[in-house]
Description:
60 residues; 4 strands
Amino acid sequence: MSIVLPFHSINEVKKPVFLRVYHNNTSCAPARDIPLWERKPGTSLYRLCDVCAEYAKYSR
C-alpha cells in the first residue's frame, strides 16, 4: 500500500455532492477501478474516500 498524489474520477460530478470522493492510496479497490484516462489530479475539495481513510489509519 502506498500513498499517491490525490486524484478523483471525472465522473464524480455526476454524483450528489455529499457522495463525491477523492483517493490517495494504491491499495484502495475503488481507486484501482478508475481507468487511468478517467482520473483527474487533485481533490476538487471532495472528501477522502472511506477506504483510503481507513488505510491512512494504519500507515502511520
